[in-house]
Amino acid sequence: MGGERGSATGGQPMNKPFDGKRLLITGGTGSLGKTLLRRLLGGAMGDPAKIIIYSRDEAKQHYMRMEYLHRSAATDEVIYRNFLSKLEFRIGDIRDIDSVATVLRDADIVFNAAAMKQVPTCEYYPYEAVKTNIEGAENIVLAISRHNLNVETVIGISTDKACKPVNVMGMTKAIQERIFIQGNMRCPKTRFVCVRYGNVLASRGSVIPLFHDQIKNGGPVTVTTPDMTRFLLSLDDAVDTVFAAYNDGSPGDIYVPRAPSALVLNVAKALIADRNIRLDITGIRPGEKIHEIMVSDEEAHRAVLAGAWYAIKAMLPEIVDEPVIPVLNKEYSSGDEVLDLDGTIDLLKRHRLMLEDVATEVGETLR
Known about the structure:
4-stranded mixed sheet, 9-stranded mixed sheet, alpha/beta, Rossmann fold, 13 helices
């Protein structure tokens, strides 16, 4: 599946592998799903025949539909035209095998973004996380196998928390990765690959929207511990990782972006700037890590360089049919190379198109 990748800042790949394909995004109303949909409607990776948004929340689907209906055809002509002609909404639940099998009949390529991803919520309701993150993945593999469906590729959206997991969310995502990887053996006509990435700037549930809300309300801004670090990338960077895994990933690969990292404390300081807002240290939350790890020590000897990404080769020898030349000799952690405060400020400025509107609103609120 070779071809040109997108840039790290959301540029569109030069090849068009999605021409005429039917694309399915499970959990498509989430942060990644929204950005992935915008890129696909804009023509990234080609001209698909259909894009299906599949989720169980009818309200979020309605808001997404109305958002695109209110767009001006003059300003977003391609996106608006493709929205009218290609986008389809389906209500369904990744936990329901019959619902999953039905929607997969109309898909060539599947992006599985359906997830329970809030760390504390998963700790308090662990089996709910199992049903979505584990059983949901199994339902996809089982439906393809049981009904001999002609799905070409499934891309599982994972998280850095699946690496050396210490919380329920990470544990369930780690098993999801294994289910998809082993799915290459159960469904030999379908390629299963995964992507794993860290904290996404301004995504729903991430720390930056929390900081913005706290700043808007005059503080305090809360940080759990001063030495906590996180990988930081934009939603477009995350989508680029998905496209790279599709373009170049071999069956069983887990694609990991080589992303910058920063102290969460410095992120808070950068957003507070010179405002008179208190910063409080609150202590670690249940299931929270000090540093995020994208590639573990055990996985390092299976990690190869893939452009702007690492590709972790499958553990199962039946899946890997090429020699592995590893490029890491230790785990890849957000604590390895941490930006200083100035570097963190520069990183946030590079993403000012994502942050500027909120920052302006914050400024007006505090005047």
